[in-house]
Amino acid sequence: MELNKIIEGRRSVNDFEPNGEISKQDIETIIEKATLSPSSYNLQHWHFLVVHDPDRKKVLKEVAYGQQKVEDAAAAIVVLGNLQAHERAKSIADDLSEKGYLPEEYKENVINQIQGLYGNNETMQRDEAIRGASLAAMTLMYVAQDMGYGTCPMIGFDPEGVRKEFNLPAHLIPAMMITIGPAKEENNPRKSRLSVNEVTTFNGF
Asked: Coiled coil located at which positions (predicted)?
């Protein structure tokens, strides 16, 4: 599908086919494409918790304040941010060097830059984890749209409830949830958008 049509056609879906399905292969394909999203230093701060088992979806629905679309969707993907992504610094520097982006003698400098920026800065770790996860989430939704699935990004859930019920490791934080599957609704009118003039400023305020 042409990119402009994907962007223009995407809607946040609230009504999914309750018996709709999405294959594990399609989920993996969608996530594989989402991992092509950009990230600071290529640290790839994202992780994806896929919930498609009917009983587990019911549990997720409860910590999402009872929203029915969590249960009706073929799957729900909790997009997580990794607070420890900076610990990949050496492997990232090795990859950059092997592919000719970084001279061997500068590898240690890059590793030190990454550790200096993130190592002892919890605010930066969290901000970057959310940013990276959000970039991957948007890519994921566009890929799903291209493959014929509806999606809905959600922040209407209890992060600590998700952590408890799904035993999240401490270094992974929920950024958002995306319900995904065949949609009931089609060709709904686009909700209003602010104009370019309303949201754009050139060269300063």
From this structure: none
Contact 177, 77 (CB under 8 A): yes
Kindly list the structural domains of the chain, giving each domain's residue range(s) and its CATH number in brackets, ordered by start. 3-186 (3.40.109.10)
DSSP 87: G
Task: Note the pLDDT tens digit of each residue in 27-54.
Answer: 999 999 999 999 999 999 999 999 999 9
The answer to whether 19 and 187 are in contact (CB under 8 A) is: no
CB-based burial of residue 182 (10 Å sphere; 0-12 exposed, 13-18 middle, 19+ buried)?
A: middle
Q: What is the mean pLDDT of residues 106-123?
A: 95
Integer angstrom CA distances of residue 194 from 197, 198, 200? 8, 6, 10
CA 101 – CA 51 distance, rounded (Å)? 38
In angstroms, the CA 58 to CA 51 distance is 10
Instruction: Indicate the pairing of strand 46-51 with strand 172-181.
Output: unpaired
By DSSP bridging, strand 75-82 and strand 150-154 are unpaired
- State how far the Cα of 154 lies from the Cα of 76, in Å rounded to an integer: 10
pLDDT digits (tens, 9 = 90+) for 162-194: 999 999 999 999 999 999 999 986 667 888 999
Closest CA to 165 of 51, 33, 30: 51
